[in-house]
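Readers outside the structure-tokenisation community will struggle with the description of the input data as it stands. Showing the layout once, in full, would remove most of the difficulty. For illustration, here is how one protein appears when written out as sequence plus structure tokens:
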Amino acid sequence: MRVAVTGANGYIGSALCKYFFNFGYTVVAIVRKPTSKLPIGVKQLILDDFTKLDVSTLDKAFEQLKDFDALIHAAGIAHSYRKNSKILSRVQEINIQATEIFSQVAEKVCVRRFIFLSSVGVNGNICSNSVSEIDKVNPHNIYTQSKYEAECQLLSLSKSSSMEVIIVRPPMVYSLDAPGNFAKLIRLVKLGLPLPFKHLENQRSVIALDNLLDFLNLCANKDKTPLAKNQIFFVADKHLLSTKEIAEKIAKTMGLKLRMMYISPKVIFWILNLLGKEKLYLSLFESMIVDTSKARSLLGWEPSIDMDQQLKKRN
């Protein structure tokens, strides 16, 4: 197998490169600057500034990817919520325009599959009933809107291209070194202060990093998963977890004592909203459930590990 990965110096991208390399694949990491995070055998394709790319610029560079099995596009600006013209322009350049250019050049060099790492946020940030791939989209900020627009471009390209497109919308991806909201929760647990999750019974779909890597590996193999062609997939661990349960598992892994207290969610929402942190409230106190039956039935995929097992690993 021959696979290229964009965003290879990021959390998921670097993990993907290591994962594929350990499988014995030929791996090309597409990065903006050299990184020491990757195994020596992984070739690095350096593209200085993704915002200055065009098809003609990439033609020569991408010749080394000719007839590759897959290009997994994990690069992007994540979780940009502030609304100002500078940030909006940057998100559009990286998350939408660069995605379009990468896919067009990948098509020209006959990459077999273009796999796009999108976000569950394309379908909103709250769902107490499971959301599936056929449900109406509801991007709720500039980040998720950019992901959705990039999805639309890719699906449009797939209608007239021999290159297949696969879109993956994962929920929160976690491991002990995960960034984002999971890292924030780890920091809260480490503080040792009482956390306001005592009677919290929300339910959230999450996915272990290793489970996501396993699914992307499955999608990269066109011969093994022909039914994945031009499809959108939700993926998640087998079991739903409340924020309380996640905090308990983090504390157990780290050997920390966890204290819980009860504060009315309405009070917490008011405080966080006052501090401009209403998104944090939604991610910690509300439910977000995804339906993964399509990935299971169409591709035969099953998540192989749970949170306890993932948190014991060092990636």
Notes: The radius of gyration is 20 Å. Residues 180-203+240-285 form one domain. The first strand starts at residue 2 and ends at 6.
